[in-house]
Amino acid sequence: MAAGMKSFSNKYIFFYITVLVVAVVALLTVVTLGLKPRQTANRTADKAMQILHAAGYQDVTSDKAVALFSRVAEKKTGEREVYGIRCADGSPGVVMRVDGKGLWGAIWGYVVLDGERSPVKGVVFSHRSGTPGLGANIAEENFTSRFVGKKLYDANGNFTSVRVLQKGKSPDVALDNRVDAISGATLTSKGVDKMLQQLNNEGK
Amino acid sequence: MKLPLGPLSKDNPILVQVLGVCSALAVTAQLKPAVVMALSVTVVCAFSNLIISLIRNTIPPRIRIIVQLLVVSTLVIVVDQFLQAYVYEVSKMLSVFVGLIITNCIIMGRLEAFALSHEPLPSFMDGMMNGLGYGLVLAIVGCLRELLGSGTLWNHPVIPSSLYAAGYLNNGLMILPPMALILVGSLIWILNSKKSKAK
C-alpha cells in the first residue's frame, strides 16, 4: 500500500460499506431484471429446440424453435411433464421428461417414444455441472444417438427401460434394452440409468 | 504506454506465481470451455483492477478485502447474467465455472499487488495481461488434453481414422484432472529450465 496511508474512522467505514453495498444491490437488480426476459426466452427456446431435435427435426434454429414446437407439440394434463408430438417423419410420438442426479448436480432429459411399447425415437440430456469431457458428454450426440431404436420392454413384454451399462456387464440384459455407459463417467452414467427407470407407467 | 508482457511468460500467473491452478485443472479437458473461461477471467480481472484502482484512495485498508470481493463478485454476476442473456450456448457450457471466477486467486492477487497502488490505466492493462497469461496456459493445456484424450480439437476430430485402425487409442487419463496437474507441472519445468540456462 502507498506510504502515508490515511486512517479512517469507524463511522466512515460503516458509511462506506453501506453505500457500496446499496450501490451494488441496485446495479445487480437493474441488470437481472433488465436481462430476465431475454434469459427466459433463451431457456424456453433451448428446451423447445432440444425436444424437437430428439423428435428428429434437424437444423432447427433457436429463433424458430418455439413457434415450431407449439405447432407440433401439445402438453398433456397430469403431474409429470408429458407432451404429445408429431415427429419429423410425420408419426405421432410421446415426449417425457425425466429427472435425475449426476456426479455434481442435477441431470435431466426428454425422451421421445413412438407410442405404446415401441422403440425410443430420440433422447436429449442436459446437466447442471457435469465435468467437460466426462459427465458432460451425456449431452453429446455421440451418447444420445446410442438410444435411438432401443426398447423399454424386453422380449417377454416386461418393463426394463433402457439400461446404461458398462460393456459386457449384466449380460442377461438384451442388446435392445441397453446402451454402453461413458467410460470415466461411471456415476453420471449410473444416474442416467436410474433416471430412465422413471419411464415406467408412462410409455403405456 | 508499454504493454506489460511479463504475465505471458516470466511472470506468468499460473506457471510462476502458481495462482489460479484449481480452475486450470477443472476446465481444460477440452479447448473450447478453456478459451471461454480464459476470456471471462480476462474481462473480470481487467475491470476489477480498473474499478479498484479508481476508488483505491477511498477504500479503508481494514475492509479492503471485503470491498475487493464485493467488486469482483458483482462483476462476475454481471458477466454471468450477460452470458445467459446473449450467448446462452456458451453460458450452458461454462455452467458452474463462471461462478468460480470469484475464487480465482489471480484476480484478488492482482488487486492486492497492483491495482491498490497504481493508476487506473496501468491497472487495467495489468489485469488484462494477467488474464491473458492465464488464458495462454489454459489454451495450451486444453489443446494437449483434448487432442490426446479425445482425438479432437474444438470438438472436431483431427486424428485420422486410419491411425485408429492401426491400433492408436485415445489416452483416457488425459481427460482426468491429474493429467492437467502433470501437464502444468511439465510446463513449469520447461520454463524453469529455460530460465536457469539464460542466467
Description:
The complex is a heterodimer of chains A (204) and B (199). Chain A is α+β, with helices and mostly antiparallel strands and 204 residues long. In chain A, 34% of the residues lie in helices and 20% in strands. Chain A contains four helices and seven strands, in the order H-H-E-E-E-E-E-H-E-E-H. In chain A, the strands form two sheets. A five-stranded antiparallel beta sheet of chain A has the order 1-2-3-4-5. A two-stranded parallel sheet of chain A has the order 6-7. In chain A, a hairpin with a 6-residue loop joins strand 4 (106-113) and strand 5 (120-127). The radius of gyration of chain A is 24 Å and the shape is elongated. The N and C termini of chain A lie far apart (71 Å). Chain B is mostly helical and 199 residues long. Chain B has helices at residues 21-26, 31-54, 64-86, 88-94, 97-100, 105-113, 120-150, 161-165, 177-198; strands at residues 152-153, 156-157. In chain B, strands 1-2 form a two-stranded antiparallel sheet. In chain B, helix 2 packs across helix 3. The chains are: A alpha+beta (204), B mainly alpha (199). At the A-B interface, helix 1 of A face helix 3, helix 4 and helix 7 of B.
